[in-house]
Amino acid sequence: MTPEPVNILLVDDQPAKLLSYEVILDGLGETILTASSAREALEHLLKKNVAVMLVDVRMPEVDGFELATMVRNHPRFETTAIIFVSAVALTDLDRLKGYEHGAVDYVPVPVVPELLRAKVRIFAELYRKSKQLRQLNAELEHRVAERTAELAQTNADLERRVEERTREREAAIAQVHEMQKLESLGQLTGGVAHDFNNVLMAILGNLDLLRIMPNEGGAKRLIEGAIRAAERGATLTKRMLAFARRQELRPEAVDAVRLINGMGEMLRRSLAPTIDVNMAFEEGLALVRVDPNQLELAVLNLALNGRDAMPDGGRLTIGARHEKIETAVQGLGAGNYVCIVVADGGTGMDETTLKRAAEPFFTTKGVGKGTGLGLSMVYGMATQSGGGVRITSRMGAGTTVELWLPVAGIEDARAPQPAIPEAPGRVPPCRVLLVDDDVEVTTATVAMLEQLGHRVVVASSGANALDMLDQEQAVDLVITDYAMPGMSGLELAARIRKTRPELPIILATGYADAPGSNDPGMPRLDKPYRLEKLSTAIASAVSARGGVGTVGPGSASAREEIGRIINYG
Predict the structure, then answer these.
(1) CB 437 within 8 A of CB 460
(2) Residue 303, number of CB atoms within 10 A of its CB
(3) What is the spatial distance between Cα 186 and Cα 345, in angstroms, rounded to a whole number?
(4) Which of 560, 547, 454, 436 is nearest to 492 (CA)?
(5) Of the candidates 127, 208, 248, 527, which lies 20 to 30 Å from 172 by C-alpha distance?
(6) Strands, DSSP E only, in 294-349?
(7) Coil/strand/helix, residue 471
(8) Residue 48 has pLDDT above 80, yes or no
(9) Rounded-to-integer distance, Cα 81 and Cα 485, Å
(10) In whole angstroms, how large is the CA radius of gyration of the chain?
């Protein structure tokens, strides 16, 4: 089979030399192209595929070196073989320059015909083989594509199985993400609620002081309204913290009827205006043994589920009754129970959905409208409390959830200990060291302490407080915030106890789940606190430490300390 001829381009400004090169190369059987200038050579290159170029070095306007540079800079001609031919530039430096400009060979003039033909034949054949190799590669790629398609078809079943596995894995990862989101939400809620409690602390403290001042007209009524609104905000913050934190159950004797009735306003505000909340409880119900925070959360979850099942509105009924089980049945042991019932008239659930209702992360709601943890948390709380949950539902007829909780025994029927025990009466004037990094809270608390007759010095950090205690021995009481940068209130208290174990300390905090202290002389004061609560806390702390010492003179007034904090942070 005769090979297909390739194009050989001869470039020289002298016609006689071009003719002689044509004669020499005529026997190769290739197609000869001629150009008398660089411009003509470039025209040939752009129109045709050239395998080999013979270029004269010395040409007017653009010499051979410059032409070779232009050719090599074009991506299409990067592999075109360039042979320089020269009768003048024959030194080794000239040859080296030619190679630097992209030449594959350098032939001196006069040329040896056989040598020139051999060189051109080699590069022409190399071009032809390279072209064949490219064709073979294209055919190979085509065959690979065909085989790939066959493999794709063959592996279709396997890919479907992999997709199923992937979906299962993604579902599991989504569950983990939901748990991480809940954990992050709890941490975020705790931080936000702490800051919000500080804001409420400043508001309530100042309102308390305004209330006891002489007021004209309707000012007192407005102040009382503001106090009620701030207290409602404080209650909301405590509920947020109770719902967000994850803790071990702390069961106690709880009046379920009183607790749920106390949630009435919150439930009505949380549910849609089209939801009619109806509460009906059997009289004389016994106390139940349960964690009150978790019971509130369970009732709220069930109420929200009922709301979602009635998008067009309807009636949500919450009730409770006494039940006695003689023989253990369906996970409930024999004994007395209070059955709390939450029933809606919504869409209901089919049998399949009802069987999976308590599975963690199972939800029929759309994306972003539910975590699927509500009922599972209710189940877990009830089971851990020694009770159980029963659900009945029919499509189009609504859902009824029964939360069974055991009746409290004698050992449970104890009122929970308050965070700050009651201490009758007020103590004599004290010199109080107040430690808090929040200027607004500090200002309000100083005013409240001064209203109670105490003298106050202020520290904005734990380190600042320790320095002041070293300088001033006449301090009768320390009130310190729990969450402060650098040194927490508990760490500060521990440092003070090492040098002044008799000094009363009160730990103030806006965190519902902040760690407490085992020291009975260090009661906890939850923010936002009122004037009466502050007075009671001081009396309790001072009484626990054996009374108040002599109040000595201070180095600076509390007002001056507050100004220093404001000016210097």
Answers:
(1) yes
(2) 23
(3) 32
(4) 436
(5) 248
(6) 314-325, 335-344
(7) helix
(8) yes
(9) 75
(10) 45
The kind and range of the H/E element at 9 are: strand 7-11
HEC-encoded secondary structure of 54-70: EEECCCCCCCHHHHHHH
Q: Which helix (H) or strand (E) holds 541?
A: helix 531-544
The more confidently predicted of residues 412 and 323 is 323
β 81-86/105-108 pair status: parallel
Three-class SS of residue 107?
strand
Task: Please tell me whether residue 414 adopts helix, strand or coil conformation.
Answer: coil
With 0-12 CB in 10 A as exposed, 13-18 as middle and 19+ as buried, what is 396?
exposed
Could you tell me if 434 and 479 are in contact, meaning their C-beta atoms sit under 8 angstroms apart?
A: yes
480 SS3 class: strand
Distance CA 462, CA 174 (A): 43
pTM of the model: 0.43
**For residue 536, what are the CA distances in angstroms to 228, 340, 421, 509, 546?**
21, 37, 8, 16, 15
Tokens 């306007």, residue located: 61
Query: What pLDDT shows up at residue 545?
Result: 66
Gap between the Cα atoms of 294 and 382, Å rounded: 9
**Residues 475/433, Cβ–Cβ less than 8 Å:** yes
Phi, psi of 136 (to 5 degrees): -65, -40
SS3 307: helix
Eight-class DSSP state of 488: -
**pLDDT tens, 205-238?**
777 777 777 766 566 666 776 777 677 666 656 5
What is the spatial distance between Cα 506 and Cα 433, in angstroms, rounded to a whole number?
10
